[in-house]
Amino acid sequence: MATTTKDWPGVSREVLAKDAPQLLPLQDSLPSLAIITSSSDVFTAAKSGFQVDLPPDHVPLAVVRPKATGEVSTIVRFATSSTPRVPITVRSGSHDFWGRSSAKGALVIDMRQINSVTVASDRKSATVGGGILAADLLTQLEPHNLLATTGVCPSVGFCGWSLLGGYGPLAGSYGLGVDQILDATIVDPNGKIIDKCDSETLWGLRGGGANFGVVTALNIKVHPGPKVLAGFVVFPLEEALEVLNKYRELLEEDFPDAFSGNATVGNLTGGFPGLSIVFVWSSSDLNAGKIFLEKIKKLGTAKSAVKEKNLSEFIKVAFPPTPKKSMVTSVYIPELSEGLIRIVVDNAKRAPAGSECFAHFHFSHGESTKPNAGSCFNVREPHLLIEIFGTPASKAAEDKDPGLKDKAYHWVKSLESELLDSQLTMDGGYLNLLDPSVPAKDSYGGKWNRLLSLKKKVDPENIFSNACPLLLGSN
């Protein structure tokens, strides 16, 4: 999955009449709009995302690729006024592990050509297109000597990531993704363009996802950059228990806001067992980061590849966006404890050979723990988000062991079950990494009723029923 997209052509009127005749009025309204259907040579590429392990019938009606907010408005008005109504989904990066940026028989609104970045004159904010991907956002900010808070994978859509929380390596310095959102332009369920959202809608967008409209632009905070100190410090898996406990003691003594803190334990990229500290240091004092790096390297037998670089350079190389047959889940944990470390390391040592099965610790500290009354995102106290991921490491590994995918998936669910049974976890989970069958209500706590009321007010007919998370119709 590249971080940029090609200007794919739409199908002809004759092909559209054969594949999806109900879309002919849309083509009449927007002759320049690329409508891609199943007969197109690029349909598979256009509909595909990060997750490739989806049911065979998980095939949309068509993919449309608007280039402006006005076109999105026309698409939504067409879909909602059609008889029968044409279901819609919205995609940017399409990294959802359950494929929710597409749906069987739906019209996929592919936002990736709405990807501009305009920096404000005061250099404190920027307006970004609703389809901008993480690496492209960082790259466009670099000539301005700025950066933004993003995730660690280059092809993740910024909007989808930030609207549901947005954990990332700069969270300690600048906060979560939801904390970056200053304003939004959306197309509401009636196709109306809302250039400036009211405070209640913004509260819902910041943590409630795209349940209230198609987000065609966000006004976000930007920060001094683009240089960070970034890379990995890797230890042998047999040292993981001792190193992680020393790491816990180090962070209890000193956890600088400028330091990301994230760590991965299990079978790393390529299926190699180990413990990796994801080292990202973001501040004007990179020398302080180098001193802190030396403390981490002394925790065990370390191999370090950390240097000063642009953040975009780091995420492009560190987490390549290769589509995979994969399973993921997440749990919240209040602290890095000895009990948690023992459970995770014991399971890491049982990861199936030939897999990439690991637990990734996202630390919420510093700015990311400060209350934000303008957001419905609920978990603001210091905590860890444990991302549990499993996939075959390569096609060759899966060819060698045809049962490898099932073994990797079983490993994910087994570790999740053990953590839930341990009574170490908190309520809810991170909705970007949580099975849709888990009720969203648990992740919003006391904010649930207000969020549900807002959904019923803004989108009473549940036009955006394919948005993540499911609000109307959930338990």
Automatic annotation (TrEMBL):
Gene Ontology molecular function terms on file: FAD binding; oxidoreductase activity
Domain FAD-binding PCMH-type: start-end pairs: 56-225
Record Pfam families: BBE (PF08031), FAD_binding_4 (PF01565)
Keyword GTP-binding belongs to the record: no
SUPFAM superfamilies the record matches: FAD-binding/transporter-associated domain-like
InterPro entries registered for this protein in UniProt: BBE (IPR012951), FAD-bd_PCMH (IPR016166), FAD-bd_PCMH-like_sf (IPR036318), FAD-bd_PCMH_sub1 (IPR016167), FAD-bd_PCMH_sub2 (IPR016169), FAD-linked_Oxidoreductase (IPR050416), Oxid_FAD_bind_N (IPR006094)
Domain of life: Eukaryota
Keywords of this entry: FAD, Flavoprotein, Oxidoreductase
Any coiled-coil regions, as ranges: none
Keyword Ribonucleoprotein in annotation: no
Recorded family membership: Belongs to the oxygen-dependent FAD-linked oxidoreductase family.
Protein name from the UniProt record: FAD-binding PCMH-type domain-containing protein
Organism of provenance: Tetrapyrgos nigripes
